[in-house]
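Appendix C reproduces, verbatim, an entry submitted by the partner laboratory led by Prof. M.T., so that reviewers can inspect both the input and the predicted structure.
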Amino acid sequence: MEPEMNQELEIDIVSLIKVLLRKWWLIAATTVVVAVVAGVYAYVMLDDVYTAESSMIVQVTSDSESDYTNLLTGQRLVDTYTEIAKSNRVLDELIDNLDLEYSKAQLRNMIAVSSVNNTLIIQLDVENTDPVLARDIANEVVDIVKDLSADYENLDNVGVLDVAATPTSPSGPNRMLYLAVGILLGGMIGVGIVLAIEYLDKDIKKGKDIEKYLGLRLLGTIPDYDMDEEVL
């Protein structure tokens, strides 16, 4: 019983492959259409994005503590400054200082703050379609965090390490990725269309379809026969 099921499965797979090969033009056409749409979206509709980079360093030097303790304290402060950089207070002041029309949620999506390989350095990246504005936001956030840290006890030990420069080349979007996804998606859609057409087509094409759909026993089949060739 099991060999028969395996054989039938192999036959179905072969039939499926034949169907896909027979309708290759439909799959190819769908792939081209979706790829063109993805390309137009990526290369025409999407704006270039620029990334401005700045950084801060946490300076912890206490003669009463060991170097290891100072390091641990500094790493904890790195996490604190990372949260401060994206806090509502910093973003509100940023909006006021630069007269921005962005909401705080939009600014949070532009700003990425992280520690550099578990060091005492904090990396701040700002993405924007305007390279000059991206630079200004990055530098202003660092300045605001530095000034704000002076208002709290034991937080006045952060300094500017790198000042953001105006980015000269875009960092995104990854247009080739959009195009690759469009090609892959187009191929999948094309295969899906072919399979849907084949599934919805109830015409009897093979002998086993008679047994499957009509419940009749197949006694024999007449093969394809070219009368013109026989007469010649």
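The chain has a mean pLDDT of 81. Additional entries are available on request from the coordinating office.
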